Amino acid sequence: MAVFSDRLGIYRLPQHKYVDAVRWLPLLSAFDRFAVLALFDSDSDSYSIEIHSFKPNPLPLQPQYSWVSPSRISSLKASQFLQKTIIAASTFSGSLHVLFSDSTDASLESEISIPEGALHSVPVSCIDLMDSGGECVTVGEDGKVNLVSIGNSNLNYRRLFDSSGLVSYTAAKWASPVEFATGGYGFSLQWWDQRKPGGPVSQFKGDWGQKLTSGIVHSIDIHPSRKHTCLAGGSLGTVFAWDLRWQKQPITLSGAGAGAGNTAVQSISESEVWEVQYDRCMKSNTSSTHILPSMICSEDGILAVIEQGEEPIELLAEPCAINSFDIDRHNPSDVICSLEWEAVAILTRQ
């Protein structure tokens, strides 16, 4: 395993609250950088979303604005929409909240929401915002898949699918304005196309050779230039890619199944992979059949870069879980991640 240390700057910032999720906000200007944190204060049993400014000197993160949530945040996303920055947050009580932030100073202007029980009868497992920010997909372990349209002052939603609990969904990711992927138990993945209603248009069940029927997909990513390939991370340190052009066999990148006839695959973690994202900072083979480099964070405290056929690169090895991370879309050398021991870490790669 390679260790990326010589050209890596690391800031570890105590928060004194449990950090459930972190996201970079879309770039407002060349000099103003902001991140949004979903926080849980166990002392006061309170939940909040805070916007912090990112300034390397004198302090890397400075809290600017805060919003109190009625419940603990289960999923957090940010995007640009209607010349505004929007922050979408789902909760363990089943509600969805959309915050509008000023495009110049990131101050919070307004909030619209869908109350608990309307979208899901259980905690919302995952949400994802379309790149334009105009639509949000929500999924839950109750088997419901919802599409939420975001307006200036209201949220309209419709139920795209309801499995009545026969299938549980734990992850979701947009691929295009009409397509998205979901993931769930048994390392399963589903591909949806709104032009073809009635259910997923394609499905993958992860029972390849290892009887992997109990694992869970925790995170999905889809590269904008290769929407036919779905990247997934989940239980047992598993990271794999599902190519819609060759659907029957997954491409294992790490974790469960890595040793099954593929000695070139090295596992970076053996625990839950909480998040996976394509790493646009890393240069790679441009072949359409080659899986682009990805970054993962895990329950056993690993933040690493994985590339097909290459030795994994370890960026962080913490004594606690790394629950989430985000790569800055405008400056992909910068990464922010949340540590289970009530802290945020910011990495700057040269």
TrEMBL record:
- Name a single GO cellular component: nuclear pore outer ring
Tell me where in or outside the cell this protein is found.
Answer: Nucleus
User: Predominant location of this chain?
Assistant: nucleus
- SUPFAM superfamilies (alphabetical): WD40 repeat-like
Q: Which UniProt keywords apply?
A: Nucleus, Repeat, WD repeat
Q: What is this protein called?
A: Nucleoporin Nup43
User: Which species is this record about?
Assistant: Lupinus angustifolius (Narrow-leaved blue lupine)
Recite the lineage of the species: Eukaryota, Viridiplantae, Streptophyta, Embryophyta, Tracheophyta
